[in-house]
């Protein structure tokens, strides 16, 4: 009994260590891409989450493609790494809640640029075009990058980095023939060709798994020390944010684990995670950008410390609790009608929440730029 309990604890420690490391690195990746895309006269709106969603969905597609039954690169003891890369890393790189805030800000002319320069759309009807522009661009870029990632996995990585292996197929015909008295004289069991990773790729995957396992505690300790020592811009983005992100990512994982099986055509767990994160991020945006008074430009969170902590909750907890990569991947596996329902309900409910919380405050008191 003690040996079983000990092995179970070792397995859990390994999983959570790998998962937490992937989550922290995913948060770093999202913030790094966001800052990299923040420059003047960019083709895509500065600091848009579309770049992060694009990268996350492509990596998700690669991992999903390599995990198909025909290839099964993450089978056996590599299953923890697969969950860490898909749910942990990709889920933390992408963000559904940030996308919903973008949709609202563009459709209501409340982006940072609009507030700073006091610019608005020609009339409110153009908000519909802005709404559709953000939704269509975000969803189709994410969907196409997921499909491209799957093709990259099956047509490139498997072709150059795998070996061919024949394994027997267990089906009903084979079972019936083997149960008959003359099965020795009947045909041999069917064989199928699989393409597991070659020795080099298998070694690299195991090395990645080991590194993520080893880095978990040092990364957490480093972030805690940096949060305590430095009280500057980095606290909101690169130190406190990833710590909050761990809890958001784990909450999303357990919501998906226990709630998604309740429906085969609507992933309830991911839906709850995305909507709850959108609600929290709307409130955080209200606190960091909402005016204290209608005729004042001072935000509710007017101290830099309060602003940085609130921003860290938004980028870390909400960014990791919500996900586009899993959202797109789940919809990809659904029947077409169920996919449309999943997309429509998620975006409709998310947008309504932002309008009720952030929109009602913005149209009564107004928004301003944050102090951090």
From TrEMBL:
Subcellular location: Cell membrane
InterPro entries: FluC
Keyword Membrane tagged: yes
Regions annotated as coiled coil: none
Catalytic activity: fluoride(in) = fluoride(out)
rRNA-binding as UniProt keyword: no
Residues that span the membrane, as ranges: 12-29, 41-62, 82-104, 125-148, 211-233, 240-259, 265-288, 309-328, 340-363
Membrane topology value: Multi-pass membrane protein
One cellular component (GO) term of this entry: plasma membrane
Stretches for region Disordered: 170-192
Keyword line: Cell membrane, Membrane, Transmembrane, Transmembrane helix
Family annotation (Pfam families): CRCB (PF02537)
Molecular function terms from GO: fluoride transmembrane transporter activity
Function in brief: Fluoride channel required for the rapid expulsion of cytoplasmic fluoride.
Family: Belongs to the fluoride channel Fluc/FEX (TC 1.A.43) family.
Annotated protein name in UniProt: Fluoride ion transporter CrcB
Species, as recorded: Kazachstania africana (strain ATCC 22294 / BCRC 22015 / CBS 2517 / CECT 1963 / NBRC 1671 / NRRL Y-8276) (Yeast)
Gene assigned in the entry: KAFR0E01100
């Amino acid at each position: 009994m003690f040996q079983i309990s000990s092995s179970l604890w070792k397995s859990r420690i390994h999983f959570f260590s790998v998962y937490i490391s992937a989550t922290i690195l995913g948060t770093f990746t999202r913030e790094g891409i966001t800052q990299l895309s923040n420059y003047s006269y960019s083709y895509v709106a500065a600091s848009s989450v579309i770049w992060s969603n694009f990268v996350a969905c492509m990596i998700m597609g690669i991992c999903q493609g390599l995990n198909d039954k025909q290839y099964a690169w993450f089978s056996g003891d590599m299953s923890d790494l697969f969950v860490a890369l898909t749910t942990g890393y990709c889920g933390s790189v992408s963000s559904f809640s940030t996308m919903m805030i973008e949709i609202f800000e563009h459709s209501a002319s409340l982006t940072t640029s609009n507030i700073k320069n006091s610019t608005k759309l020609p009339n409110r009807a153009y908000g519909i075009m802005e709404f559709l522009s953000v939704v269509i661009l975000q969803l189709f870029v994410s969907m196409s990058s997921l499909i491209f990632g799957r093709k990259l996995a099956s047509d490139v990585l498997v072709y150059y980095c795998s070996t061919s292996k024949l394994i027997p197929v267990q089906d009903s015909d084979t079972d019936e023939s083997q149960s008959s008295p003359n099965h020795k004289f009947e045909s041999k069991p069917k064989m199928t060709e699989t393409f597991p990773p070659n020795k080099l790729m298998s070694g690299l995957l195991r090395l990645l798994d080991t590194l993520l396992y080893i880095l978990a505690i040092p990364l957490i300790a480093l972030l805690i020390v940096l949060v305590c020592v430095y009280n500057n811009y980095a606290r909101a983005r690169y130190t406190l944010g990833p710590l909050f992100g761990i809890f958001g990512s784990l909450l999303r994982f357990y919501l998906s684990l226990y709630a998604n099986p309740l429906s085969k055509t609507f992933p309830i767990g991911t839906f709850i995670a995305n909507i709850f994160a959108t609600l929290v991020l709307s409130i955080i945006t209200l606190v960091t950008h909402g005016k204290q008074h209608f005729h004042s430009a001072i935000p509710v969170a007017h101290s830099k410390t309060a602003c940085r902590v609130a921003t860290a909750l938004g980028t870390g907890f909400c960014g990791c609790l919500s996900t586009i990569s899993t959202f797109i991947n789940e919809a990809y596996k659904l029947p077409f009608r169920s996919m449309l329902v999943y997309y429509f309900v998620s975006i409709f409910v998310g947008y309504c929440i932002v309008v009720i919380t952030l929109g009602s405050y913005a149209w009564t008191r107004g928004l301003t730029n944050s102090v951090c």
